[in-house]
Amino acid sequence: MHGSARRALPVSIAALLMTMCPVVSAADDSAEVWIERMQQAVENTNYEGTLVHMTPGRVEQFRVYHRVVEEKATERLVLVDGAGAEIIRTPDEVICIFPEQQSVVIESRLVAYADQGPLRANLPAFSTDMIEYYELSVQADDRVAERASTVIVIKPQDQYRYGYRLWLDRETAMPLKSQLIGDDASIPLEEIRFISISMPDEISIEAVQPSIDTSKYRVVRHSKAPRFQRDNGEVIGWRSHDVPPGFMLSVSRFEYIEGNSSPRMHLVYTDGIASVSVFLDVGVAVSEQVEGFSMMGAANAYSLMKEGLLITAMGEVPPRTVQRIAVSMSAAEIN
């Protein structure tokens, strides 16, 4: 994948799950209610456990610590394999520590991806808009990580989005396992599951602090306040003019990338569950002007050069979706 796409996906891994809620009654046991409970369960539950992230040809294992105090969450993820890279997410920052490179990357939560992390990135959020494009159902109960769970299936109604299978804890609605489903439902594009998890009343502050001495590491900070003028006339007003049905623009902002002399434009198109990020970069080196499809895990990307800009659309959606959005990007006045 070319340099622009690598910068656009900061490091995989970071966030995850949601709050403890009382068990709902049978009358309220719909898929929509389960998903809403899941959303309320992820950020506000104290938990620690071992998480496995699987994509075709790749398996990663993490130790996860998630601490909530006064409705504010801090968490630490440690890559079990290799040199033990760590990601710490505080209410204000995402801190990525890479022992092999002896470097630390710090991003403001306003700049970093809100859904960083293998589980969080694969968790849908319920919206009434999704009903037209997805079919929701509750399947038979199952067990994951020695806990009883309910299986929720989210099936797309067209070719522009993927489906999901979610295993939610019967007691708390915590997502214990999640699968991203493509055309072949028997082989998930991505699977995230806890092989062990506990939800104690308290998590110590030491559990969510770095375990690596970074005093001699190189620090790269991606600021929410660029050191240059934010208005980049070359990318203002660019939009996709042929988005797939149901996708709408939800984010439009400039981002500061360390080492770049110009800000990049970041747009997000979403249907309420799936999302596609579009990045417009100015002054890209010839060596990074790679066009066509690429993949990172379960995410597809499509890039092309247009009017001197490198346009990259990427997301956990079918290739045809990112291509359609990227190709239809053009400049237009904003009313």
Overview features:
12-stranded mixed beta sheet; 3 helices; disordered N terminus; mainly beta; 335 residues; 6-stranded antiparallel beta sheet; Phosphorylase Kinase, domain 1; outer membrane lipoprotein receptor (LolB), chain A
Can you offer a commentary on this structure?
This protein has 2 domains: 3-208, Lipoprotein localisation LolA/LolB/LppX (outer membrane lipoprotein receptor (LolB), chain A), CATH 2.50.20; 225-331, MucB/RseB, C-terminal domain (Phosphorylase Kinase, domain 1). The chain has 3 helices and 20 strands. It has helices spanning 3-8, 31-42, 319-327; strands spanning 47-55, 58-69, 72-79, 86-89, 93-98, 103-108, 134-144, 147-156, 163-169, 175-181, 190-198, 218-222, 238-240, 248-255, 264-270, 275-282, 292-296, 299-306, 309-315, 329-331. It is globular, with a radius of gyration of 20 Å.
